[in-house]
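QA checklist item 7 of 12: single-chain prediction sanity check.
[x] sequence parsed
[x] length recorded as 791
[x] structure emitted
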Amino acid sequence: MLRVRFGGTSAARTVALLTALAIAAAVAAAAALGAGCANAGSGSPFGSMPAGGSGVSIGGGVFLDAGVLLTSDAAFSTTSGTEIDGATVVIAPSSATVTVTNVNGVVTTPSVQFTATSGAATVNAAWSVDQGAIGTVTQTGLFTPTGQSGGLVNVIAGVGGAIVSAPVTVIIDRTQNGFTGTVDLGGSGGYGGVGGEGPGGPISAADVTALQQTPTSDPSRSFLYPYSGTVWPRGILAPLLQWSPGAADATAIALQLTSKMYNYQGYFGRPAALAPGSLFVRHPILQDVWQQATESTAGGDTLELSLVLLQGGVAVGPLTEGWSVAPGILQGTVYYESYGTLLVTNSDFVAQDGSRVGAAVLGIQPGALAPTVVAGTNTPAGATPGTGCRACHSVAAAGSSLIVQDNVYPYDVTSQYTLQTLTETVMTPTYVLDWAALSPDGTYALTSSVFMGTNTDTQTELYQLAPPAATALTVSGLPSGIIGATPAFSPDGSHVAFTHVSGTLQGLTGDGTHVVAMSFDSTGPAMTGASNVFTLPSSGDAGSAECVGFPSFLPTNDALLVQLQLGACSSSSYQPYVGTGNVHGEIWWTDLATATQHRLDALNGYNPDGTSYLPVNASTNHTDDATLNYEPTVNPAASGGYAWVIFTSRRLYGSVATIDPFSSDPRYYDNATEITTKKLWVAAIDLNAAPGTDPSHPAFYLPAQEIQAGNARGFWVLNPCEVDGQSCTEGDQCCGGYCQPLGDGGGLVCGSATPTCAADGDKCVQSSNCCDPLAECIDGFCAESSPAPPR
């Protein structure tokens, strides 16, 4: 959920924030130079705030109490008209462009010498930069790129009370011939967390030359994955490029990634792990290349992909795509249920090879290459098969706890897990909390009266959770007899939504075709203002749609996503889940104010004209993959100007997962050699979109999920908060709400002291609390409401 504007990694933000301290020192040194002409260059680049520095304005930025300078992504403003002895202070050169080259790991980083003058005389200055991850400057004015990423960095000089700056454009130009490291194909997430055979090695000079020639078009080839137009967050694992076979097999590839500040050209042969006779139809982007490319691509810029293949000694292609990069990192943890996982063996199902598989809730931490078991254990010897199974679950948005069904059918026992310790507590009463919605802090559970087609609790109720007890509460505005399904709380806890299956609710009649939203007040508790916010579309819009379910609120709390089921479903047999039957689904959205609903075309896989852009494989029944999308849940925090939705899909995953879309039960297919397409995907959603439009973007495969298993019902939630003094990258990780630099340059730690204004990611009450004028207070934290403009 990193939403800061200071670069894209926690390390980059640390450097940038500490760099801001250097700017504070520049102000102090500049003032000292103006008073006594001291030699500022002899001091430390890090220093304390000037006296009375809180709120000091420099170049359009504002210092916080901790000495942090917040600026926009635009070029740093120069203070003009300031003179020393009648002469204007000038920094030279006034701008510069530096190209860092990297040829097979040999890096060349040219430096630029800056000077400050007043009239004809060179003057001493206190030097700093505003993007420490891109470049550094010495106290003699020598600027050197770090080589970590390209971008725009401002070299800043403080002289006698004047603050002047010069923009430096840093371009990364990288060439690589093959991967020469160790390829580790182990781990349940597959190579690099995305599968495939790993990267290929170097190729001959003759093959490089051949790939550099003008390629010949091969219309039979196209990209299968990723999709053009995808919006990627920073910090995500690198994708696996996958393409169709073409007229002949390839022996080598040339891979190019290009943006305004980055150019990469990589040449690779067939991966060593590729079995003899297998087609060369996929190759990863190396993780360090991907990180550098995404860090170098600013908001509003496009990262262009080009792939040329060597077929019979002739260059063929290019295959091209263009992507956007959101200036934010997705943190937090994804919790999802896996049927057929090989990480535990506890199911009463027996796979085709005679082995038992498992059912468990798994978790994916940021940067992990594979999931870990969160809830679920192996069945003890002699115990009833199914003992230890944990699958159908719900998670509190703030990351404190999850509840999950366990044991064997009819899955009537609920356990609560404290996510910091993974301590399990069996809850009472049984058979009421399955698929219940948890309030953001995990205090309340709103029950689902329908679970996998079976009535569980006889009506929708609100329970207060105090493990091991769950106590039913009387709720004003929620009468008895209401049967609701797949409920959800909004991220701020002020609203609830559910499918209204039956019963009369504030004048509304339930029949399974409506999603109802209500305001929620925990002090009553009370629910008010029931309204139908999503209604089953006409058959002309949605074919044979019969029911709706799985609402999930956007971080703005004023809109929600809904699964539209395209198949037999009614209030008498309501089954809004992704079973093994031939059930199709799409994901739509609606706003609470006007209830104007619209299909998320780009997320589902539709072009603007209604045709599908997703690949087709008729031999395995993948002819309509745009209707294989289910169970959306939205990250409660905005990041990089977007909301992020995680959903289940049975679509093709390139050439990795290709079997029949409804083959996800390992009793009926060979899970040792075949990979089910039942997987988790993620898509960016524009914040504050106009009702009735499509704010979605093409989705990407969630890295690190177990590649052999059938995965579903992902919840992407915040991690449990950290107490004051613990390390952090932004305030929404902190119980106190703020992530602030230590005054001695020791990094970033959680704090609860209120600063002059809130940095992106820190807590807020209203948008005016945010330091960044482009940020809004979204679900209690400062965040950009749209992607940052190009730098």
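[x] summary fact logged: Residues 10-36 form the longest helix (27 residues).
[ ] second reviewer sign-off
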